């Protein structure tokens, strides 16, 4: 229970469904005051209080579990290391993989609980398949697609059949004070939402060149290649326009030479996406190449593709090219379905061309 | 509900509740000059006399406060400031390493913000300050010491300190000695004058009185600079409108707790011994922390190797058994206990503790319920502990 509206309503629904429910709030900050203040994040003392009050209203026991060490080792340090390596990680996905459905779930199972219930907007129906939420704008199946069948067997997502607006209305009906609490958006452990400053604080500054992909000409300087993401246009600070007057985008980041390479939008277009070892949400992966849709970033548009995988890696051939695919993000494969697109599996993007 | 957390707070005695309600029905500020004010004042002064008599103090030595934390803060900071003002060389605060956070944090604050030098008195593996340790500290720094503070009995492991011996050493050198007796009163005999103390902290809700009211017993000749400024209601050392109903109730509870102390110690002590035997039978490798004999009759404090205390607490709570990990919390997160660490426990053992504390409403059924529930809880907590260890 993060202290937000989703997990509060999820807990209440789990009680209604007849489960014996215990509320758990995760303390993820080594020092809660150092994390963001206000009601936006998942880590503040105020959020812990909101979660506790929701548990009171629902009528369930409530505990705070200290997962700060695990969170730092598995999520924060990984986040920094991935940026340092020129990739763009998704810490929410990593948190689900390593904390909520690993450290928390394992502890819960050991203590005699059967499942972890969360307020994620996703469905896991009677067939056990992970599906998109009915609220496509709030769908969070992308950050859950990293869970294996064994993990998903112990996951309950009570909110997948309801829109966010419906969840808020239900929270108000249930007398939960968090009904109107603003959504959290940014990364919970980046206090002020300034990821670039957060990374600079941990990685220091490392001045280097911004280079034109076509000519090799040095166009400008940067304070650290980690601050850039493939597909980024804003904040390059190049001062002068390209000769053809068209905007330039980050095409790639090369940590070894500490170089950021920029070029025109069409140079961002890729049709082949290479990934690391896949995780299949329904057991063994497909034997043959599979026709499906892939989503290549959180809240990204699904793209038709053919996915060919073996246990060590996955290659997706896109039916139409897309722009700005950042290594480090997840590729999530879906099978379109009228009852909610089914998550087939996911893999971390290594390269795209 | 099996309530094994009397050291956190214990049910109000019926007489104390009655005294509270009676006084709360009446109107009157004890500082007012009219008849209702005089009635309120009379209730306060009678309470002061009863409380003083029960604890071996004079009525004028009773300063009513908002509870144990305020009394500790007032004693530690107030006596330090007063002594340092009288003699700038006296800027050292000596405190046992196992104090409650109300004392620990006050002392640390004086060290950080108040120009104090701090000496922490080490304890033995049972949690006792040895008198010769204090003697050496006084020999080394006697002329600099502003005050010495050591609790009468520890809130976590229940160890009772040799307070009279420690206070006598302080008195020899005319150093004020403060003790936090919050856990001790009603469990062991406590006499302010006989122990030779300069100041003593007590509070209502640990002995059958209400929350939010306590007292500092402060010797008449002990200087103490106020923390709270205002109307000067309590000897000009503590300001704030007196909580008439709370004070009446608190005094009633102290009187009963002191009168019933020997009976409670015998009855609850026997229950506690049964509890210890039951825990050991259920979990053979459980370690009883604290002193084997010099401990509060209601206290049983264990380490359960391989378990995290908060996991055990959750599992027992789910079976309607209320106990405590015994250590301080920050936003609900268990920290390893400074008391256990001072007693030489490693961090894992200091996180694996549960405190069971009995009181005036405890029964043998409570003890039996714990013994029945514990083995399964420990087994699950061990599995959870192994999961974390493998991460």
User: What strand line-up does the widest sheet of chain A have?
Assistant: 11-15-14-13-16-17
Distance between the termini of chain A: 41 Å
Assembly type of the chains comes to heterodimer
Q: How many helix segments of chain A? A: 8
The total beta strand count of chain A reads 17
Helix content of chain A: 25-40%
Low-pLDDT segments, ≥5 res of chain A: 34-42
Task: Identify the biggest protein-protein contact and residues per side.
Answer: A-B, 18 and 18 residues
Main-sheet strand order of chain B equals 2-8-7-6-5-3-4
How would a crystallographer describe the biggest sheet of chain B? 7 strands, mixed
CATH architecture of the largest domain in chain B: 3-Layer(aba) Sandwich
Compute the number of structural domains of chain A. 3
What features would you describe in this structure?
The complex is a heterodimer of chains A (353) and B (391). Chain A has 353 residues and is α+β, with helices and mostly antiparallel strands. Chain A folds into three domains: 5-119 and 158-180, Rossmann fold (3-Layer(aba) Sandwich), CATH 3.40.50.620; 205-263, Roll (SH3 type barrels), CATH 2.30.30.280; 268-352, Beta Barrel (Elongation Factor Tu (Ef-tu), domain 3). Chain A has helices at 5-16, 45-58, 68-84, 91-111, 141-144, 149-152, 164-173, 195-203; strands at 23-27, 62-66, 116-117, 122-124, 130-132, 155-156, 208-212, 218-222, 249-254, 259-263, 269-275, 279-280, 290-295, 303-310, 313-323, 330-335, 342-352. Chain A is globular and about 65 Å long. Residues 34-42 of chain A have low confidence and may be disordered. Chain B has two domains: 2-8 and 261-389, Aspartate Aminotransferase, domain 1; 14-259, 3-Layer(aba) Sandwich (Aspartate Aminotransferase, domain 2), CATH 3.40.640. In chain B, the strands form four sheets. Chain B has a seven-stranded mixed beta sheet, sandwiched between helices. The longest helix of chain B has 26 residues, at 364-389. Chain B has twelve helices and 14 strands. Chain B is α/β, with parallel strands linked by helices. Chain B is globular. The interface between A and B is medium-sized, with 18 and 18 residues.
């Amino acid at each position: 229970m993060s202290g937000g509206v989703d997990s509060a309503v999820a807990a209440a629904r789990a009680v209604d469904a007849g489960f014996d429910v215990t509320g758990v709030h995760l303390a993820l900050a080594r020092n809660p005051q150092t994390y963001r203040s206000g009601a936006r994040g998942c880590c503040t003392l105020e959020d812990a209080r909101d979660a506790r009050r929701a548990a009171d209203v629902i009528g369930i026991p409530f505990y705070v579990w200290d997962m700060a060490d695990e969170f730092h080792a598995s999520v924060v340090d990984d986040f920094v290391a991935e940026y340092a390596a020129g990739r763009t990680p998704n810490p929410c996905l990593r948190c689900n993989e390593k904390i909520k459905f690993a450290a928390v779930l394992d502890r819960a199972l050991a203590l005699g609980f059967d499942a972890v219930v969360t307020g994620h907007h996703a469905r896991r129906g009677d067939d056990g398949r992970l599906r998109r939420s009915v609220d496509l704008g709030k769908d969070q199946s992308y950050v859950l697609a990293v869970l294996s069948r064994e993990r998903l067997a112990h996951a309950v997502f009570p909110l997948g059949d309801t829109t966010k607006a419906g969840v808020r209305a239900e929270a108000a009906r249930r007398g939960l004070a968090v009904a109107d609490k603003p959504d959290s958006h940014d990364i919970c452990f980046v206090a002020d939402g300034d990821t670039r400053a957060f990374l600079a604080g941990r990685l220091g500054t490392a001045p280097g060149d911004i280079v034109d992909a076509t000519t090799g000409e040095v166009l400008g300087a940067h304070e650290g290649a980690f601050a850039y993401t493939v597909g980024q246009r804003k904040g390059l600070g190049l001062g002068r326009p390209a000769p053809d007057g068209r905007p330039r985008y980050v095409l790639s980041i090369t940590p070894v030479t500490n170089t950021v390479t920029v070029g025109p939008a069409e140079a961002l277009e890729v049709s082949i996406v290479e990934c690391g070892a896949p995780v299949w949400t329904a057991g063994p992966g497909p034997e043959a190449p599979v026709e499906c849709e892939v989503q290549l970033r959180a809240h990204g548009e699904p793209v038709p593709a053919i996915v060919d995988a073996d246990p060590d890696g996955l290659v997706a051939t896109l039916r139409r090219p897309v722009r700005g695919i950042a290594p480090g993000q997840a590729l999530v494969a879906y099978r379109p379905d009228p009852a909610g697109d089914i998550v087939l599996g996911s893999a971390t993007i290594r390269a795209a061309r | 509900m099996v309530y094994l957390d009397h050291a956190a707070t214990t049910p109000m005695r019926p007489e104390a509740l009655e005294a509270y309600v009676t006084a709360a029905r009446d109107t009157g500020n004890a500082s007012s000059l009219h008849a209702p004010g005089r009635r309120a004042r009379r209730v306060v002064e009678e309470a002061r006399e009863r409380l003083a008599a029960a604890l071996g103090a004079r009525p004028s030595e009773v300063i009513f406060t908002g509870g144990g934390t305020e009394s500790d803060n007032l004693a530690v900071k107030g006596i330090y400031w007063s002594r340092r003002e009288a003699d700038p060389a006296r800027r050292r605060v000596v405190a046992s390493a196992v104090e409650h956070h109300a004392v620990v944090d006050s002392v640390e604050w004086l060290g950080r913000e108040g120009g104090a030098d701090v000496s922490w008195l080490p304890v033995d593996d049972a949690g006792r300050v040895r008198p010769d340790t204090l003697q050496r500290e006084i020999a080394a720094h006697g002329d600099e010491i502003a005050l010495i503070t050591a609790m009468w009995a520890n809130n976590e492991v229940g160890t009772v300190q040799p307070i009279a011996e420690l206070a006598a050493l302080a008195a020899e050198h005319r150093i004020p000695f403060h003790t936090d007796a919050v856990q001790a009163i009603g469990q062991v005999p406590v006499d302010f004058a006989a122990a030779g103390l300069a100041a003593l902290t007590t509070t209502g809700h640990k002995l059958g009185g209400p929350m939010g009211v306590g007292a500092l017993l402060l010797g008449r000749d002990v200087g103490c600079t106020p923390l709270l400024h205002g109307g000067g209601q309590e000897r000009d050392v503590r300001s704030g409108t007196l909580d008439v109903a709370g004070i009446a109730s608190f005094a009633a509870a102290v009187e009963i707790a002191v009168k019933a102390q020997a009976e409670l110690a015998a009855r609850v002590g026997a229950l506690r011994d049964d509890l210890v035997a039951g825990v050991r039978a259920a979990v053979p490798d459980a370690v009883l922390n604290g002193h084997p004999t010099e401990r509060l009759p209601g206290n049983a404090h264990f380490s359960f190797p391989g378990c995290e205390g908060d996991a055990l607490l959750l599992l027992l709570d789910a079976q309607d058994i209320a106990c405590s990990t015994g250590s301080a919390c920050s936003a609900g997160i268990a920290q390893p206990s400074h008391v256990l660490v001072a007693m030489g426990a490693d961090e894992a053992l200091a996180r694996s503790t549960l405190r069971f504390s009995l009181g005036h409403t405890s029964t043998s059924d409570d003890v039996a319920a714990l013994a029945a529930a514990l083995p399964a809880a420990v087994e699950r907590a061990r599995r959870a502990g192994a999961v974390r260890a493998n991460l």
